[in-house]
Amino acid sequence: MQSNIKYIELPKIKDLRGNLTFLEDHNQIPFKIERVYWIYDVPGGEARGEHAFRSTTELIIPLAGGFTVETQEGNIKSSFELNETNKGILIPPMTWRKITSFISNSVCLIVTDSKYNEDDYIRDFEEYVESYKELV
Ligand code: TYD
Asked: pLDDT digit string (tens) for 53-77?
């Protein structure tokens, strides 16, 4: 089985005054944006986002700094080092993910196709494994 996580490279408009990157729903990303949130001021050694979403698709971008996203889709484990502000990963629903190894002053931007809903979270890894088995 192959991973369904995809790298997304966003446009980078280079200019002597600095660079500019953008994204629009249904253009650079394959969904309508319902929510944008960002994680920042993460103390050294801390991890964030250790859970799965039942039906949310998300794009994770290192807006500043860098970090590692560790993922698991069923039995497929992957690790993505993100540190370029125009390069992110698109994560489908039912992916277990954990964000680690934050460089200091990193900003982790997450763009999603759903509003915040605690019922969409699976926070227990065993429950994730069981729910994933029911899908395949
Ligand atoms: P959570 O998603 O658990 O953080 P992380 O996965 O990065 O460790 O969210 C932390 C808290 O913030 C939790 O109480 C829910 C709340 N929250 C919102 O109210 N709205 C949101 O869009 C998000 C992502 C979280």
From this structure: 999 999 999 999 999 999 999 999 9
